[in-house]
Amino acid sequence: MSHTPSAPSAGTQPTVVEKVFDFIDERVGLKLFAAKMLNESVPGGSRWAYVFGSILLFIFIMQAVTGVLLMFYYVPTADHAYASTQYILHDVDYGWFLLSYHFWGSTAMVVCVFAHMSQVFLWGAYKKPRELIWLVGLSLFALVMGFGFTGYLLPWDQRAYWATTVGVEIMDKTPLIGDFLARLLKGGATPGQMTLSRFFVIHVMVLPAALIGLAGLHLFLFRCAGPGGPFRGTPVELKAKTDYFFPRQIWKDVVGMAVVFASICALAFWEPVVLLDEATPDPGDYHPEPEWYFLFLFQHLRLKMFSGEFGQFLGAIAFPSLLGALLVALPFIDRDPERNIFKRPIALTLWVMFMVSILIFTVSAIINREFLD
Amino acid sequence: MNDQMSPTKLGFGILWPAFWTGLPIKLALAVLFLAFGIVHFETRIFLAFLMLLASPITVFALPTITLGLESHIGEGAGIAMLFLLAIPIDIWALGVAGRTVFLERLRREPPDGLGLTLWWKCALVGAIFLPLLWVAENAITEASISAAHSIFETGFLVGTPVPERISIELTLWGTVATVALLLLLVIGFSLVGRTIRGTVKSARHAAENYEGLITRWDLMRVPGDQGLMLTALSGVAVVLSLLFWSSLPVFTPHPHDCCKKAEVKVEPAFKPLETLNKDEKVITQLAARVELLIEQQAEAELEKEKSKQKGEEGKEAVKAPEVTEPAPPAVMKP
Question: Which residues does A contribute to its contact with B (CB < 8 Å)?
């Protein structure tokens, strides 16, 4: 190969990918957008505690993908819902795995929502200037619970039908608007075809649209306020350990997503979805109960102090609503700028009591099954 | 942070990150083995998860717990394979976590072979302590459950409604069992920390200041060839995905009574042209054989005829010398 020292060295030609990137950047400012998104600084360094938000987004995407695939075969009518679900489980190639993954994915979503909210609460990341992020986050939590509630009915077996019936009857206890709410959800006096249609539309259209919008708002507000960072560490330590979102935090997020994905797959193998008998107006020997993340509330309502009409109203509507209102008001009640959880004993004690009581009542509900007959 | 860390903090500080560092790889293998069908977890999937998570400690304790104490986490040869494969993963994870703690918190130079050293020390402590923890925790839990039951057998509590009774009993024995478990875990972490302390004391002090140590650790974690690492990881992900999807059962392993599939043998597809050509070939071959048989038969008959003729000629040849035999000479008489 000849070499002419006097000739200037030719620059390397841009690759096809670089050319496409430049083409788009010239028209929409892609480089600036990518820099803004990826070069966010994470004070105190990237942390595993921050991965739950990204994991939730990943789980939602996987639920959407598996949900769309299931919709190719599922028929949302009272006559065919059960048969089409059984068809997916027994006759569609890998249908059992898709449905089991979708089922366990909803469980993972609830677990990760609790983990994410706990992390935000314990790190005091709901305090000024992040109040709006907290409020939008609470709305997202309500949507996730709505997903679980509406999706549970769709297989139309005894478990699905009666769990929904119990849930709607609980809503009926709301004063003034309870009857209207129950009829709106049921689409009539008793659960039937109208109920299934409404739950299906809410599950596949209304809730996903709402979640996408609110999740976008949540992310936008988070980027405006910036990450709160750890509540401990000297300024020297925090500055020494500052990372950028790419690649450190993204790497941790990807690993977290992989762990959650593998866990859901393992659960789908261990306990694949098996339907009970098709829904009938008579429960027979079946004892209705809701999905596991509502069991603690269900067990509360079995206690003597919540017996009778008024007691049921207190346990099912009043106290949960009060708790919800407290959570909404939390950033405005707790104005102390201190974020270290070990210097906030009331917050720590309340969180521990809340989580422990959920655990105790959920396990109690499982033990209580043996005594139902 | 300094090098006067308590044994409990030291043990926890190394084991906690090491558990979670190795978990993604172990979980990927576990899912693959589930797809292959060589692992079946029973109802104790949560216990199986904990055992796998804590495999630096449980790897030699698991046989004792499974066989000696008769507690199974599942069936299948894959479980043993999983824990064997976890050994190199744990050595690597303990090396990564150990180097972080040594540099960042203890401000000491991590010695060579730190991962292996930490691994065998943790495995040894686990092999001895974990079965003891298992026995102790089981005994305490059973005792507290029976004590909680017996409280409600007394006079004034007999009429307690079932839901209340369940919740109160669970709170009572759950609290005792949880506190006992936490205490035993603290003792365990302390034992691990004491075992590791020798390695810490023999390590040299690091020369840099805090910022220098963090920078060094940062640079140690960045791979030399990032493109190669990304390609390798992507390749591994593709291979694992292909293996997973190719071994995943097509139909559910737990069919409902309504939809159980009958065992049907799949008949091979009928291909008319091929069958015709094959049959024609067979016919041609058979016709050729028939012709050959006919020829052979004809030859055999010819041979038979020939041998018959020869036989007749031979007989005639034998008869002819009797006729031509000369008479005895009469002249020679005196």
Answer: 48, 86, 89-91, 93-97, 236-237, 240-241, 255, 258-259, 262-263, 265-267, 269-272, 274-275, 299, 302-304, 360-361, 363-364, 367-368, 371
Contact A270 B45 (CB under 8 A): yes
Interface predicted TM-score (ipTM) = 0.80
Q: Helices in A187-318 by DSSP H: which ranges?
A: 193-201, 207-225, 235-240, 250-270, 295-300, 308-313
Residue A62 has, within 13 A of its CA and on its CB side, a CA count of: 25
Chain-chain contact of B167 with A299 (C-beta, under 8 angstroms)? yes
For the segment A223-258, what is each residue's pLDDT rounded down to a tens digit? 888 877 777 777 677 666 677 787 788 888 988 999
CA gap A153, A165 in Å, rounded: 9
| Range in A60-69, A342-351, B159-168, B316-325 with the lowest mean pLDDT | B316-325
Q: What are phi and psi of A278, to 5 degrees?
A: -65, 150
- Residue identified by tokens 């997973």 is B244
Contact across the interface for A89 and B30, Cβ inside 8 Å: no
How many interface pairs between A and B have CB atoms less than 8 angstroms apart?
Answer: 98
Q: What is the pLDDT, as a whole number, of residue A28?
A: 85
Question: Of the segments A94-108, A233-247, B32-46, which one has the largest average pLDDT value?
Answer: A94-108
For A244, the 3-state DSSP assignment is strand
With a CB cutoff of 8 Å and minimum separation 6, the contacts of B94 are: B14, B18, B56, B114, B115, B118, B119, B122
Banded pLDDT at A1 (limits 50, 70, 90): very low
- The answer to whether residue A371 scores a pLDDT higher than 60 is yes
Contact A33, A235 (CB under 8 A): no
- Of the pLDDT bands very low, low, confident and very high (cuts 50, 70, 90), residue B174 is very high
Instruction: Outline where DSSP puts E strands in chain A.
Output: 41-42, 243-244
Interchain contact, A89 vs B259, CB within 8 Å: yes
Chain B residue set in contact with A, beta carbons under 8 Å? 20, 23-24, 27-28, 30-31, 34-35, 41, 45, 49, 161-164, 166-167, 170-171, 174, 210-211, 214-215, 248-256, 258-259, 261
CA distance B43 to chain A (A): 8
* Dist CA B110 CA B206 (whole Å): 9
C-alpha to C-alpha distance for B82 and B55, rounded to whole angstroms: 10
User: Three-class SS of residue A7?
Assistant: coil
pTM of this prediction? Answer: 0.80
